[in-house]
User: What shape does this take?
Amino acid sequence: MIANTKCQHCGNEFETDGMNRTEFCPHCGKETTLYVPPPAPVPEVEQSAQKPTLPTPNPLTKEQIEWRESRRATGSNPLSPADTLQQIRQQTCYKTLRGLIDLVQILFFVAAGLAVLGVGAGFFAGSDAPAAGKFVTVIIGIASAFILIVLAIAWKQAALLLVDIADCQIRLAGKNR
Assistant: This one.
């Protein structure tokens, strides 16, 4: 909200956004404290209508409190997220798919290795090629190998994420029956 403010030092007016309690006057350069008008008084009837009513918290029953205390006493706390994920991956319904994901990642790494080998072969096979051509070949080969390695890692993480989601959905569907 843009508002006109009067400088306390020189008396000139200038525009301010009102976001800060103090502003520097563009005319004299001195810091001016902004005037913040007090809120208009609201009649009592309107105040009660404006106050949101919060629901009262539902207190725990005696059984719920005892159950919580027994969990704390026995140390049977739920698993951490990393332990839960490890348990889901060990008890997966998609062992073959997880193996295929690893195989595809290995194929990405092999392709990156072949790109580097191709650079080496192109570098030595074209011994009569100009140095600029060799340099471009090396840069393209190394960049493609780097991109393939990044894609391999991203592929595996994305694919495992989808399989983990599927395993979690199956686990939740079994618990809700």
Observations:
- The chain has a mean pLDDT of 79.
